[in-house]
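How a chain folds remains the central question behind the approach discussed here. The record that follows shows the chain in one-letter code together with its fold in C-alpha cell form:
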Amino acid sequence: MATDEKLNYGDHSNGGWVLVVEDEPRLRDELVALLATLAPDFGEIRAFGSAEEALLACQEGAAHAAPHCAFVDINLPGQSGLELAQALPDETRVVFVTAYDAFAIPAFDRGAVDYMLKPLSSERLQRSIDRLRNRITLPSGDLQPVLRDLPQLQPKLQPVAYLRWLAASAGRRTQLVAVDDVVFLQSDNKYTRVVSRNGEHLIEESLKTLLQKLDPAVFLQVHRSTVVNLREVLMVERDESGAGLIQLRNNPDVLRISAPFLRAFKAFLA
C-alpha cells in the first residue's frame, strides 16, 4: 500500500476505538494494560504486532468507526510505524512510541504527533492521554515532512544502550555495582537506593532517570517509587484493594506493587 493512500474507515462519529501497534509482546501488553487503567473512557483497545496486521484489521472493520487514536511503535518489522501512521485516516490522532534516543525526537516533534520514549511510564502516558483528550495533537496527515526526511534521519536512530554498571559513590570511594546483581531500586528523594545481592548503595541519580537506562525486559516498575529485577521475583500476592505484595527469591524485603502496575505485571506474564 502506498504511504499516501488513505483508508476509508467509515463514520468516525460512531465512537471509535484505540489502536496499539507494537511488535514486542511484553511492551504491547504493558501499554494495553496501562491504557485500560488510565483511559477507560477511550473505549475498546485493539493491539497488533505489525503494521500489516493493523491495516488488515482496519480494512476488515471499515464499516465501523475509525480508531480515534493510535499508539504506534516506529521500528516495526516490515512496514514502519511512520508509514502506518500515514495510511491512517486524518482524524486518527497518532502517538509514536520509540526506543530511540533524543537525537531522533526533533524529526517527530513537528506538532503533528506526540511521542513517548521506551521504557514506558504511567506518568508520561498520562500526559499523552491528556493531550489526546484536549485535541492538541494534529492529524496524522501532517506526517509527510517526516516521511520525506526519514532517509536522512535513519543514521541517527540508535537503540538505547542499557546500563551494565552503576557507580555508587561514598566520600572518595566509588563502588561499581553490576546491574545484573541488582534486586530492586527505590526512590530516596534525589537519590536512588539500590539493593543488590551484595548489599545496599545510594546512587546520585533519580529513579526516573535510571529507569530509562535499564532493560525493560528485566526491570519493571511496580510502584511509583520502586523498580524490581524480574529475575529476583519469587511470588506476587494480590490483596483486596487490587494491589499486592512481592516476595523476593534471596532477599527478606517485601515490596508493594500498586494496582495499575499489578495489571501491567500480569499482562507481562501472559
Q: What stands out?
A: Residues 164 and 180 are 7 Å apart (CA to CA).
